[in-house]
Amino acid sequence: MLPTARNPRAGHSKLPRLPGKSVQIENTKPEKDDVSQTKRSPSSPQGAPKKRSAFGDITNAHKNPVPHLKKKDGVKVTSKKAQRNNAPQGVSKNNEINLKKSIKKPSIEETTGKEDTVAKEAKGEPIEKPIPVEEQKAEEPVPEIDDIDKDNDDPCVSSLYAIDIFNYMKQREEKFVMPNYLLKQHDISKDMRAILIDWMVEVQENFELNHETLYLAVKLVDHYLAVAISMREKLQLIGSTAILISSKFEERCPPCVDDFLYICDDAYKREEIISMEMEILRRLDFDINIPISYRFLRRFAKCAHANMETLTLARFICELTLQEYDYIQESASKLAASCLLLALCMKNLGSWTPTLSHYSGYKAADLIPLVKRLNCLLTYQKDEKLKAVRNKYTHKVFFEVAKMPPLDILSLEDALKS
User: Fold this and answer.
1) With bands split at pLDDT 50, 70 and 90, how would you rate the model's confidence at 80?
2) Comparing 177-283 with 293-417, is the CATH topology the same?
3) How confident is the model over 160-192, as pLDDT tens digits?
4) 84 by DSSP, 3-state: which?
5) Is the pLDDT reported for residue 239 higher than 70?
6) Residue 413's pLDDT band (boundaries 50, 70, 90)?
7) Do the Cβ atoms of 265 and 237 come closer than 8 Å?
8) Relative to the CA of 108, which of 133, 151, 199, 277 has its CA 20 to 30 Å away?
9) Each residue of 222-233: b (16+ CB within 10 Å) or e?
10) 341, 366 in Cβ contact below 8 A?
């Protein structure tokens, strides 16, 4: 059973401890130079090339002038007529042949077409004019795209800036690409990370924190471990400090340091949490506005006009990926789009619409491989001990979406083709 949630409005009181004194992480096996050209000035010194006047050095007008030949010099000047007559006959014949070839003979189709138009004009019949190619392309139906930010008076939604905000977040995804950091973490494995994330889900539910806080905390853990080598004894300290940082970023009333000391069963001191907070922020250059899949998921569900139950199912699928190390290299927007597409297929609510393609930037064909992987994640549970996410979404508050049976492979392929 999970511990009872604390009341944030009441005064500080001791929180019920999470199961076990601290997270016990079992010993598991870790898996040509450019040549610059100088410009010469117009008044170059002697020996440099002079500035050439127009056509002065190109023509032979001033070089070796030919003297005018006169009759009395004994030289016979041939007239132009004689030169033409003395030209070889083969050249003239070739010129005639080339002229004949250059004259294009009208094809049979052109002649028949012209005859038909002349006959129709004589009879007074209407003449069909060929439609230009550009007009033919313009006649093709353009898919309708809904304006999801239209007529929204809610100031919290920021509909005037929503498109710019999400375009900016998609650009930032390229900055936060995750490497395979476990290759250099010799004391931490995939299973240890999964245990830590499972505990962080319990903390989020116990403190009644926003889902954005949980997603950002997991991102902070991964990005910190990607740049810093850590031991398994510090893993819970990293996780609790990541939740503290993300709470200050996302929550209106974040938990205090003493709350995190209590849930860790006093395994760490207050100075250690504050020191780890400074270490994480310094390692990440204080840039913690990392794009998370939960924000994209809510945006895409609005494009699909999905109800709360369908959105909750997509959230359940997306939250399952937090524990899986194999999904950290997927971009947040693509992961959110794939989770929503799988939820639409499971609820039999249609396929990927042009509106979704426009706002998400992904076509259905781009998401199919990832959708199939997510369906396998729903079907097969790797570790039965890590049940925090599945237990969370079996409550009636979340429409008991965790009890919904997954699709088999054939049914999923038929749903994706439709």
Assistant:
1) very low
2) yes
3) 899 999 999 999 999 999 999 999 999 999 999
4) helix
5) yes
6) very high
7) no
8) 133
9) bbbbbebeeebe
10) no
CA 153/CA 149 separation, integer angstroms: 10
Q: What's the helix, strand, coil split of the chain in %, to 5?
A: 50, 0, 50
Please tell me the predicted confidence (pLDDT) of residue 159: 85
Name the phi and psi angles at 219, rounded to 5: -65, -40
User: For position 158, what pLDDT does the model report?
Assistant: 82
Cα–Cα distance for residue pair 27/186, rounded to 1 Å: 12
Q: Fill in the amino acid letter for 315.
A: R
Alpha-carbon gap, residue 54 to 52, rounded angstroms: 6
Q: Among residues 6, 16, 22, 7, which one has the least CA distance to residue 236?
A: 22
- Whether 18 has a pLDDT exceeding 70, the answer reads no
- 381 membership: H or E segment, kind and range: none
Q: What is the mean pLDDT of residues 286-304?
A: 96
The CA-atom distances, in angstroms, between 204 and each of 145, 243, 268 are: 37, 8, 19
Task: Report the phi/psi class of residue 399: left, alpha or beta, with left for phi > 0 and alpha for psi in -120 to 50.
Answer: left
CATH 1.10.472.10 describes domain 293-417:
yes
pLDDT > 90: what percent of the chain? 59
Q: SS3 for 29?
A: coil
- Identify the CA nearest to 340 among candidates 295, 291, 382, 379: 295
CA-to-CA dists, residue 344 to 313, 316, 404, angstroms: 9, 13, 13
Distance CA 295, CA 301 (A): 10
Instruction: Output the six-digit token pair for 221.
Output: 């853990």
In tens, the pLDDT along 89-124 reads 554 555 555 555 555 555 544 555 555 555 555 655
Q: How many CB atoms lie within 10 A of CB 352?
A: 22
pLDDT on residue 382: 73
The class level of CATH for 177-283 reads mainly alpha
- Mean pLDDT within 212-225: 98
Task: Please give the pLDDT value at position 103.
Answer: 53
Q: What mean pLDDT, rounded, does the chain reach?
A: 79
Q: Rounded to an integer, what distance in angstroms lies between the CA atom of residue 167 and that of residue 358?
A: 12
The position carrying tokens 């250690």 is 272
Whole-number Å distance between alpha carbons of 368 and 101:
58
Distances (CA, A) of 42 to 19, 37, 47, 48: 87, 16, 13, 10
Residue 24 has what pLDDT?
59
Tokens describing residue 265: 């069963």
